[in-house]
Specification:
Length: about 140
Amino acid sequence: MAKTSTSSLGAASAELQMLAQRLKTWRATRRPGQRIPEDLWQAATDLAGIHGLSRTTTALKLSYYALRRRLQAGAAGDNRRGRPPVFVEVPSLPLPPDGGARGTVELVAASGARLILRVPDVGPAGLLSVVELFLRHRA
């Protein structure tokens, strides 16, 4: 069996080789200063999720740190995209016999989810179960 020359991609997958060729074509025809198109970046981040960051950046001749930023941003965005907001109706709390003053409690989770409660003057024990439920739910 005759030996064939190996490309610089070595044993990289066919997907990496195809994307490397697309990038090579784009680089040969681009205008100076033009940024890599989003569809090529998206394909590169998809492949980095499969083949690993180092192997992908080496095969595609991309900046390791630029692809890592995009990969991390995509992972964070995946948690928020595609999921509709969840509406939870909480039964109203009974008003104290004297009518009580109304108040507002606003909570913001690290994910950016926001809970605003407009309730009568209720002690912390009355709101604890609602707050715990909100904090447990990952929006």
